[in-house]
């Protein structure tokens, strides 16, 4: 490499790093100053616009084009910011036939995007997970998966993630330092080290195969983003970040899992979100329709309080069609009650309220 190319690459990397730092600084500033009030502001501004649109939505005419499917509710971690460690619930794994029925009916409804993301648990614990993925990909569905990444290295799962056709993977990560990763995820340092090795192998394999899979390492750290970035720069991950093999996400505000997670549970820079003052419209998560491992269809795929089999469950795909369930009276009643201030217990103290933004028509049988 001649001197000119050396300086060109050097400056390009420095500029990319500066831009990344600047954008993440703006993001953090936004979350610290404006984010706590953004849903209150949106509710006020959009009230007169949305109030005319909300009626057909509540009548079941519009639903999102994505569906959350939960392959299992079993987890191999006990993250400090998650309610999983506080629950005593029945462990379940979705059967292939259940998944097949859901996907087939989802396609008929015009669905295009599957979120394989357990409310509780880790998808890679389901040993048939990649068979589920391949079936859905044959139907032309876009797939995004969420995982804690602990099992990426085991049985070379990182290769299957790439080879199975998954479009997007988000890996929840406490830190790239094994001791801190273990503390945040509630696992052993040995397991944390294996997880970090699995992350590197996934990035190496993506680069080797020239795959288009999107990889995001979502940091849920006790340290500041500046410290996390410094660790990346001084590790094997730097090369992959410079080449944009993966993206970085960082969070320091967390919801309270319907009142179950307290400030004392969090570590370092972690903070609890405040509850929005205004919640005029039903939370956007109520349109994040999720199918649980046993076939129950639940309006929210984000958070639970005591169990996922609660008052948000409106049917079961093994006894009814997906279309019948999402348009039934029980689901509509939950949404309508919200409009008059009658919010169910699970949602009452939840700080993950999302303002309804996008609604997509589904065909009706």
TrEMBL record:
Tell me the ranges covered by the 4Fe4S-binding SPASM domain, including all copies: 288-350
**One Pfam family of this chain:** Radical_SAM
Q: Where is the Radical SAM core domain?
A: 69-172
Q: Which Gene3D superfamilies match?
A: Aldolase class I
Record keywords: Iron, Iron-sulfur, Metal-binding, S-adenosyl-L-methionine
KW Iron-sulfur (keyword) present: yes
- GO molecular function annotation: catalytic activity; iron-sulfur cluster binding; metal ion binding
KW Heme (keyword) present: no
PANTHER family under this entry? PQQA PEPTIDE CYCLASE, RADICAL SAM DOMAIN PROTEIN
The protein, known as? Radical SAM core domain-containing protein
- Recorded source organism is marine sediment metagenome
